[in-house]
Every structure is written in structure tokens, then in C-alpha cells.
Amino acid sequence: MDGSPNLLGDATDMRTTAVVLTDNRVSMQNLLDVADSYAGHFIHYNLFYDLNLDELSASEVFTTELIQGVPVDKCTNLDESSRRHICSLIMNLCLHELFKFRYMQTDPNWSNFFYNQNTQKVRENYFGATRSYDKAFMDKYISVIKAAADGDRKKVLLMSRDMGFLTGYESKAMEEAHVDTVMILGEVFSDRNPEFDFAHQDTTRRVTKLVPTILHERLCPPPEEIYSLHRKLSGVFLLCAKLAVKMPCRDLFMNIYNNYVFDQNSLL
Asked: Helix, strand, or coil here: 70?
């Protein structure tokens, strides 16, 4: 993957993205509370958290303990098992953020994640781009990802209209292009790919090929949540590609999906 595509159908309007991300930024004075809340979500899952030093922090200063390790994008020379372990942890974190806690650190910068070979843990050191997501939105989003993973194009189309990706008045070409992009995203979690090969997939090329149709034919922008959400997802996929791993993403996703609790009125 040589770029960061908008993986769920509509080409990203960069000005809209900037506005959405700016509106959701966390002020320095609230950063300690955000970091503590984020850490509280994941401390029991052996995932990514950092210890804040409240006594050394102030309204314009945010202090944490020193992290031991190296940025994950510098781990390309580690053995295959270690690289798979890193990517599995980060993918699992991303899925938990989205579908269990609906609370995500949306900045995909690889330098935010440090890997410690001695403890075999990945730790995160920045929470300024953290935001929450509405339960009703996530009920529908996990359903559309599941439909794509299962190869159900009809359900992807219906869910996309219900979520506001499509109005229902698009051209056939636009509907096909949008559904194609969702299906491409779903391949990562498909049972047809027991171990998804990030090193040799062509996701970027195929999505990029659909962008001109989407730009020309779309009648509405995607839901605002998508800008930050897919910024993070794209970053996770790109990291897995950079570390050249093959791993069973389907298992990680289905573990989340099988334990997901839907609100009754969110079901299509």
C-alpha cells in the first residue's frame, strides 16, 4: 500500500476533514482526563496505556512516564513472529476502540506507538486526537463491515443508504463504485482470507481506480464520523503493510462481532 485511501466509498474532501478533525481536537487542559479515561478502558485488556504524572502536569503541560521501546515503524527488521504480534495487538486495539468502547485515538501516526521487545507490549503516548462515537452509528457500521466481510453486496448497499453514505438517488455507477470500495475493505475480515496478506495486497490501487467515479457521481458527503475513523483504519492497514505481515484478521473481528450487543432499534 503506497497511500492512505478513504476505504469506505467516498473520496475524502480534505477541507471537510480538516474542519471535522479540528472540531474534535482535545484541548491541553482536558488531555489528562482524556488520557486517564482512555487508559481506564484498556488496562484490563493488556493493550495500550500510559501512566500520567498529574503532579508534573498543568494546563499547558502534559507529562507521562518515559516509554521504553522503539516506534513500531522501526520494527521492520524484527522476525516475522514479532511483527505479526505487533500488528495483531494494534489491529485488536483498533477493533476494541471502535466496537467495544466506541472511544478511539484517531491519529494514525506510527510514532505514537512504541514496542518493547522485553515485555512484548506496544504502548501509546498520545491521546490528543481521541474522540467518542455514537452507539447507533457503530451498530450500523459494524453491520456494514460484517456484510462486506461476508460478501453480501445487497446488504452493503442497503446499510450504506441507511447510514447516509448514499441518498438512494445515485447513478448505478456510483452505487457500484461505493459498494466495491466497501467490499475491498471487507476483504481484510473475510473468511476467504484466513490470513490476510498485507504485504502483497493491492487495496490502494483498486480503491484509487474507483475515486474518479465517486468524485463525479456522489450526491452527498459521507457521515462526519468517517473522516476520523478511516484516517485511523487506513493507518493501521498501512502499518501492517509496512511490517509485511500475514495474519488472521477475521478471527479478531469475529471475536468482537460475536460479543457485540446491538440496540434493538439499530438493527436493519
From this structure: strand
Cα–Cα distance for residue pair 87/181, rounded to 1 Å: 23
Q: Residues 111-152: pLDDT tens digits?
A: 888 898 998 888 877 666 778 899 999 999 999 999 999 999
> How wide is the angle at C-alpha 233 spanned by C-alphas 52 and 254, nearest 5°?
100
Sign of CA dihedral 243, 245, 248, 250: positive
**Tens-digit pLDDT profile for residues 189-230:** 998 888 999 999 888 889 889 999 999 999 999 999 998 888
Which of 10, 50, 107, 180 does the annotation list as catalytic?
A: 107
Question: What one-character DSSP code corresponds to residue 64?
Answer: B
Identity of the amino acid at 103: Y
Phi-psi region of 164 (alpha: psi -120 to 50; beta: other; left: phi over 0): left
Give CA separation, 165 vs 53, 161, 263, in Å. 42, 6, 21
Helix axes 203-217, 172-186, angle to 10 degrees: 150
pTM above 0.85, yes or no: no
Let me know if 107 is a catalytic residue.
yes
Q: Which residue has the cell 488520557?
A: 35
